[in-house]
Amino acid sequence: MNAPAAAPVPIFATPFAALPLAVPAALNEALAALLAARATEEQRDPETPPDPLCYRSREDLFDWSAEPVAALRREMLGALCAVVRATNLGAPGEFDRLTVQARARFALIRPDGGLPAASLPLASWCAIYCVAAPPGPSARPLSGVLRLYEPRLGSMFMDAANWRLRPPFAGGHHTWQPVAGQMAAFPAWVAHEIALNRTDQDLVLVIARVRFANPGQESAPPW
Asked: Domain containing 136 — which CATH number?
């Protein structure tokens, strides 16, 4: 008797999207100047220890009234909603009834600085927009990359039969090179970091944690 043909299917897939936003270069320049000017001690995130190589702001960026920030907020949340729609089942118009809740901060990754690995609490999605990115040194291709950690590797036994699986079954961490004008989006539970910036200029990022609520939903914990 012939054995039936094997037809494995992927399970536990994790969505990730990298996409350009409709943000003019002039707006990015205005954003970079505004964020640099407001990178003060008063605006620094009080819940993280001061780091001379990485400035992290309070998580109130999307509350600012400055037009460059308001424009970026519209673009980031609009693009994220498109990504979320593409990953969800639902009747037409069902998604449009949801309320978007978002908190955002900016980070200035100085030369030789980075962001340690973390996941984002009380949110379903993370969006990271690159305002400004220096050209990476050819000898350090992983300078300043966003690295998303594969959660299975910590408990997975590796042998000769699974260390080199073909896509989409292959395991391993995923990296994304920040480019000015582009955004990455992925589930907020994924542990991620910004690798050391091995250039002589700042890497400027806006990091948002986002969740969606049904009309009248009051069960979500406060930020």
From this structure: 2.60.120.620
Tell me whether residue 1 is in a domain: no
* Sign of the alpha-carbon dihedral angle for 79, 39, 32, 135: negative
The count of structural domains within the chain is 1
Beta bridge partners of 19: 183
Contact call for residues 146 and 175 (beta carbons, < 8 A) = yes
Query: Each residue of 101-138: pLDDT tens digit?
Result: 999 999 999 999 999 999 999 999 999 999 999 987 77
Domain holding 190, by residue range, is 17-39+51-213
Candidate ranges 133-147, 157-171, 175-189; pick with highest mean pLDDT? 175-189
Is 107 inside any structural domain?
yes
Q: What is the pLDDT of residue 51?
A: 95
In terms of Cα–Cα distance, which of 207, 222, 210, 221 is closest to 58?
207
Whether 143 and 137 have beta carbons less than 8 Å apart is answered as yes
